[in-house]
C-alpha cells in the first residue's frame, strides 16, 4: 500500500524509510537501491528534518507505521520544543489562526522580547492539521550575511543540484501541497527575506508563511498582526508567578506587589521572565525596589519604543546583578551568532578555564534566564535570545576584550571546520555542520582583512563542507574567498582550481571554469609550482573543447594551442603521472580545430596515461575523449561500451571532492545519451532514475527531462506527461538557459499530444522544444523526428519529400538513428522513389530502436511479414509499447491486439 507522506517525503525517501525500519545499514540500503552511500546519507538527514525526529531509531519506528499503512502526520521541521508553559495570548492565538486561514503571508510585528517567537511556535503547532504537507520553523537569528535560503534549506533538509538554485530546491520541496513555513526573527535580514518570501509564495501555491519581525516585510498581500505586551492584572501576573515558581517552588508573593512589578515591566514577557528568575534571591519587594532605580529613564512613557528601552534596562539590571565571573562569560557569549555547546563556550570564553568551571557559570546564567537551553537527542545546546545577545555584544564592545574573543572565536571555528572535514564519510557531520554553519560563516566574515593562515584555513574548510552539504553556490564563494585570504600563491591556486570544479557542479560548463583555471595557473606559476601550472592550463584547454557551448564567444583555436604549448613547457618533461595524463587529454582535444571532436589515436594515448594514475576521475575524463572520437566515426556500440565503463567508475569517485564533480555530472549525461543512441530504452530509463537519485547529477528539471524522452519512446505516455510540467517549470525557474538537452523531451511531450489528437497541446510543447534552443537549426533534430513520426501516423504525405530530406540532414548526436528510421518509413508511406535507398541508409545505424523501425518500414515497402514480425520482436526487447502496437496493426492476425494496446495508451488507430 502506497502511503502519502504529509511531510513531503519523496518516493525514494519512503523506500529508504522502510529499509531503516528493517534496521539496514546505509551501505545495505545503497546496495539494494543501486545508489551511492552518500545519497542514502542525504535521504536519512532529510527524513530526520522532515519528520522532526532525533535519530535513525525514531525513523525506524515511523517506518513501522508506513508498512502498516498508517499515515504519518505532517510535521513542522525545526519546531522548537518548549521547556516552559505558555501563558495567555488566547485572543491573539485565535486572531492569528483566523488570519492565517485567509492570508498567505502573515507577519507578527512587535518589539524584541514581546513574545513573538513563542506565539509563532504555538500557532505553528496548533495549525498542524491545516497543513498536511508539513513545513518548517526556521530561526533566522543566526542567518547573518543573508544566508536565509541556507537556513530554510538546512531545516528542510534540501540542497542544491546543478542548474538549480538553493531557493528553487526549497520551492521544489514545498511544492504544491499545503505547507507552513515559519520565518522567525526576520528584521535583521529583511532585505533578503522579503524577495525570498515572494518567490516561495509564487512558486508554492499551497504554502503559507508565518513571519515574526520588528517591522513588516513589505511584500504584496502581507497581513501584519501587531503584538503588544501581556495585559496587566491578568496574563502578565500569571506569567510572573509561573516563572518565579519554577525558579523557587516555595515562592509566595503579595498579589499587589506582583501587579506593581508587572506594571513597572510594561507587561513585556522577556522582562517579566528575567525579573522572575531573580525572585528566589531578592524576593518580590527586593525586586520592586531594585527595579525602580533602573526604570526611571523611561518614567512617563509607555509607547512601544519606551517599552523596548524598558526591556533593555531590565536586561542591564539583570546583568549588573551578575558577579564578575558571570559578567565576563555573558559578554563573551555575544561572539556566537547561533546556538553553542559547552566545548564551544570553553574554547571562546577564556584560555585555560576548566571545563567544569565554564559549565557551572553557564548554568548560573541559564538559571537567571539570560541564556536559554535546547536539547535534541540528549545533547544540550545554549543560545542567547536576540535582544539579550545585542546587549551582550554591546558589553563585549565596551570591554577591551573584543579582539581577543573574536580571535578565539575564529580559532574555534577553524578547528571545528577542519575537524568536521575529517568525518565527511560518516552520518553525523551533516547535522553538526548545520548546527555550527552560521557561526563558521560569521567567524570568517569578522576575521581581519587580508591574507592569513586562520581565515584561509576556515574559508577552505567551509568551502569544502558547503560543497559536501551541497550548498554549491556558497561553496564556490568560499573557495574564492579562500584564494583571496591565502597566505601563499600556491594555496590560492589550489583554491581557484577547486572553485573551477565547483563551478562545473553548479552547472557552468564553460566560461567561468575556464577563467578560474587560468587564474589558478597564474597563482601556481607565481608559486613556482610547474606541475600545478601545467595541470590548470591543460584543464583550461580541455574545458574549452569539451564544453564549448558554455562560452559566450568561442575561444580561438590558436589561443588554445598556445595554452597547450605553455602547459607542456611548464611541465618540462615532468615524470608526474597526473601531469602527463592531463597533458595527454588536452592534446587529444586540441588536435583539431573542429568543435566537439577529439583525435582518436591521441584519445587512446590519453586513456592509457590516465589508467597509469589509477585515478577514476582522470580515467573517466580521458574515456570521454575516446567516446567523442567514436561518436564522430559513428560507432554507437563503442560509445555505449565506453560509457558503461565510465558508469562503473562512479562509485570510486569521492562524493566530497569537488574535482570529481565535472566527471560525475558528465558521466550521467553522456551515458544516458549513449544508451539512447543505441536505442536501449531500459538502460536510458535506468540511468535517468540514477540521475534523479544522485545529488550531484543534475537539477530536478534536468533529471526529469532525462526520463521523459525514453518514457515516451517506451510508450509510457502518462508518466512522461506527469514529469513534463516539473521539467518545464524547473527550466523556467532556472532562467530559461539555452540548451539542447531540454529540446528532445519537450518534443517528445509534443509527440504524445499529437498522437492523442490534442493539436493545441502538440503546438504548445513543440513551440517549447524550439524555445529552449532558440530556433530550429537547418539540420535534423528530435523535433524533426517528431514531425515525421506524426506525419506517418496521420498519413500526411503532401510535404513528405522535404521532411524526409531534413530527417537525413543530421549532425553527430544520438538522435539521427531515430530521425532517419522514421524518415525512411515516411518515404515508404509517401511512395517516394528513393525510399529503398533511404531505407538502406537508415539500416546502417547501430540502434535497437532504429533496427526495429527500419524492419517495419521494410515490411511496409516489400510486404515482408517476416520483417514485420522481427520489428515486433525488436520493439518488445526494448519495451517500446506504442511502436509495437502500431506494428501489430500491420499483421492481420494480430491487428486486434494492436488496436487494444493503442486504446489503452489513449491513441487512435493510425491512418496508415
From TrEMBL:
<dbReference type="Pfam" id="PF00196">
    <property type="entry name" value="GerE"/>
</dbReference>
<feature type="domain" description="HTH luxR-type">
    <location>
        <begin position="2"/>
        <end position="67"/>
    </location>
</feature>
<dbReference type="InterPro" id="IPR027417">
    <property type="entry name" value="P-loop_NTPase"/>
</dbReference>
<protein>
    <submittedName>
        <fullName>ATPase</fullName>
    </submittedName>
</protein>
<dbReference type="InterPro" id="IPR036388">
    <property type="entry name" value="WH-like_DNA-bd_sf"/>
</dbReference>
<dbReference type="Pfam" id="PF25872">
    <property type="entry name" value="HTH_77"/>
</dbReference>
<dbReference type="InterPro" id="IPR058852">
    <property type="entry name" value="HTH_77"/>
</dbReference>
<dbReference type="InterPro" id="IPR016032">
    <property type="entry name" value="Sig_transdc_resp-reg_C-effctor"/>
</dbReference>
<dbReference type="InterPro" id="IPR000792">
    <property type="entry name" value="Tscrpt_reg_LuxR_C"/>
</dbReference>
Amino acid at each position: 500500500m502506497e502511503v502519502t507522506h504529509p511531510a513531503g517525503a519523496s518516493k525514494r525517501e519512503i523506500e529508504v524509510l522502510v529499509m531503516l525500519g528493517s534496521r539496514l545499514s546505509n551501505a545495505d540500503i545503497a546496495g539494494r537501491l543501486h545508489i551511492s552511500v552518500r545519497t542514502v546519507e542525504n535521504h536519512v538527514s532529510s527524513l530526520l528534518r522532515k519528520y522532526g525526529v532525533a535519530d535513525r531509531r525514531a525513523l525506524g519506528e515511523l517506518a513501522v507505521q508506513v508498512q502498516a499503512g498508517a499515515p504519518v502526520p505532517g510535521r513542522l521541521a525545526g519546531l522548537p520544543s518548549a521547556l516552559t508553559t505558555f501563558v495567555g495570548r488566547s485572543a491573539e492565538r485565535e486572531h492569528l489562526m483566523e488570519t492565517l486561514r485567509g492570508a498567505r503571508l502573515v507577519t507578527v510585528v512587535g518589539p524584541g522580547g514581546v513574545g513573538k517567537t513563542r506565539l509563532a511556535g504555538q500557532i505553528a503547532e496548533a495549525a498542524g492539521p491545516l497543513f498536511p504537507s508539513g513545513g518548517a520553523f526556521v530561526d533566522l537569528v543566526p542567518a547573518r550575511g543573508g544566508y536565509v535560503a541556507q537556513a530554510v534549506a538546512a531545516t528542510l533538509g534540501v540542497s542544491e543540484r546543478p542548474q538549480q538554485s538553493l531557493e528553487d530546491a526549497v520551492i521544489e520541496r514545498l511544492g504544491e501541497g499545503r505547507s507552513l513555513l515559519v520565518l522567525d526573527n526576520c528584521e535583521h535580514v529583511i532585505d533578503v527575506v522579503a524577495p525570498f518570501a515572494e518567490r516561495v509564495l509564487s512558486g508554492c501555491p499551497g504554502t503559507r508563511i508565518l513571519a515574526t519581525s520588528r517591522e513588516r516585510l513589505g511584500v504584496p498581500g502581507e497581513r501584519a498582526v501587531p503584538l503588544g505586551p501581556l495585559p496587566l492584572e491578568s496574563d502578565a501576573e500569571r506569567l510572573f508567578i509561573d516563572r518565579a515558581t519554577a525558579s523557587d517552588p516555595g515562592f509566595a508573593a503579595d498579589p499587589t506587589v506582583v501587579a506593581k512589578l508587572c506594571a513597572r515591566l510594561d507587561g513585556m514577557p522577556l522582562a517579566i521572565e528575567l525579573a522572575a528568575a531573580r525572585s528566589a534571591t531578592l524576593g518580590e519587594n527586593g525586586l520592586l525596589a531594585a527595579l525602580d532605580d533602573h526604570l526611571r529613564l523611561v518614567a512617563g512613557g509607555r509607547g512601544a519604543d519606551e517599552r523596548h528601552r524598558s526591556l533593555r534596562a531590565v536586561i542591564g539590571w539583570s546583568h549588573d546583578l551578575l558577579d564578575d565571573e558571570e559578567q565576563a562569560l555573558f559578554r563573551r557569549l555575544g561572539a556566537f551568532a547561533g546556538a553553542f555547546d559547552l566545548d564551544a563556550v570553553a574554547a571562546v570564553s577564556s584560555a585555560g578555564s576548566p571545563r567544569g568551571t565554564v559549565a557551572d557559570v553557564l548554568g548560573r546564567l541559564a538559571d537567571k534566564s539570560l541564556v536559554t537551553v535546547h536539547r535534541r537527542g540528549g545533547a544540550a545546546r545554549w543560545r542567547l535570545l536576540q535582544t539579550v545577545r545585542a546587549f551582550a555584544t554591546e558589553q563585549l564592545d565596551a570591554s577591551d576584550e573584543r579582539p581577543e574573543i573574536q580571535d578565539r572565536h575564529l580559532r574555534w571555528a577553524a578547528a571545528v571546520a577542519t575537524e568536521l572535514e575529517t568525518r565527511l564519510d560518516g552520518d553525523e557531520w551533516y547535522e553538526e555542520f548545520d548546527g555550527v554553519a552560521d557561526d563558521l560563516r560569521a567567524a570568517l566574515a569578522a576575521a581581519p582583512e587580508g591574507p592569513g593562515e586562520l581565515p584561509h584555513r576556515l574559508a577552505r574548510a567551509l568551502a569544502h563542507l558547503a560543497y559536501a552539504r551541497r550548498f554549491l553556490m556558497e561553496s564556490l564563494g568560499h573557495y574564492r574567498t579562500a584564494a583571496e585570504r591565502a597566505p601563499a600563491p600556491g594555496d590560492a591556486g589550489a583554491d581557484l582550481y577547486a572553485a573551477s570544479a565547483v563551478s562545473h557542479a553548479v552547472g557552468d560548463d564553460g566560461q567561468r571554469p575556464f577563467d578560474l583555471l587560468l587564474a589558478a595557473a597564474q597563482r601556481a606559476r607565481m608559486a613556482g609550482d610547474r606541475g600545478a601550472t601545467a595541470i590548470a592550463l591543460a584543464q583550461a584547454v580541455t574545458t574549452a573543447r569539451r564544453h564549448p557551448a558554455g562560452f559566450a564567444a568561442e575561444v580561438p583555436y590558436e589561443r588554445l594551442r598556445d595554452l597547450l604549448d605553455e602547459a607542456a613547457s611548464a611541465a618540462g618533461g615532468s615524470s608526474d603521472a597526473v601531469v602527463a595524463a592531463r597533458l595527454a587529454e588536452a592534446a587529444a582535444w586540441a588536435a583539431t580545430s573542429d568543435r566537439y571532436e577529439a583525435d582518436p589515436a591521441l584519445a587512446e594515448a590519453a586513456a592509457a596515461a590516465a589508467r597509469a594514475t589509477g585515478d577514476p576521475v582522470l580515467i573517466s575524463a580521458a574515456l570521454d575523449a575516446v567516446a567523442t572520437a567514436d561518436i564522430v566515426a559513428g560507432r554507437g556500440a563503442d560509445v555505449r561500451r565506453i560509457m558503461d565503463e565510465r558508469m562503473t567508475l562512479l562509485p570510486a569517485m569521492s562524493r566530497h571532492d569537488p574535482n570529481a564533480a565535472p566527471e560525475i555530472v558528465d558521466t550521467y549525461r553522456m551515458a544516458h545519451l549513449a544508451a539512447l543512441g543505441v536505442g536501449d530504452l531500459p538502460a536510458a530509463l535506468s540511468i535517468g532514475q540514477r540521475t534523479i537519485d544522485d545529488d550531484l547529477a543534475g537539477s530536478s528539471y534536468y533529471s526529469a527531462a532525462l526520463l521523459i524522452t525514453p518514457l515516451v519512446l517506451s510508450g509510457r505516455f502518462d508518466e512522461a506527461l506527469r514529469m513534463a510540467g516539473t521539467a518545464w517549470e524547473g527550466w523556467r525557474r532556472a532562467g530559461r538557459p539555452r540548451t539542447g538537452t531540454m529540446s528532445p523531451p519537450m518534443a517528445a511531450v509534443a509527440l504524445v499530444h499529437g498522437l492523442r489528437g490534442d493539436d493545441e497541446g502538440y503546438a504548445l510543447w513543440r513551440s517549447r522544444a524550439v524555445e529552449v534552443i532558440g530556433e530550429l537549426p537547418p539540420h535534423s533534430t528530435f523535433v524533426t523526428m517528431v514531425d515525421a513520426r506524426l506525419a506517418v501516423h496521420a498519413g500526411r504525405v503532401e510535404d513528405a519529400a522535404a521532411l524526409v530530406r531534413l530527417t537525413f540532414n543530421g549532425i553527430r548526436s544520438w538522435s539521427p538513428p531515430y530521425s532517419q528510421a522514421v524518415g525512411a518509413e515516411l518515404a515508404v508511406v509517401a511512395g517516394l522513389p528513393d525510399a529503398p535507398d533511404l531505407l538502406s541508409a537508415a539500416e546502417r545505424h547501430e540502434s535497437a530502436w532504429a533496427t526495429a523501425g527500419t524492419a517495419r518500414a521494410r515490411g511496409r515497402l516489400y510486404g515482408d511479414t517476416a520483417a514485420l514480425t522481427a520489428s515486433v520482436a525488436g520493439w518488445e526487447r526494448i519495451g517500446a509499447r506504442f511502436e509495437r502496437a502500431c506494428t501489430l496493426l500491420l499483421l492481420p492476425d494480430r491487428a486486434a491486439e494492436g488496436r487494444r494496446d493503442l486504446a489503452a495508451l489513449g491513441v487512435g488507430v493510425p491512418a496508415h
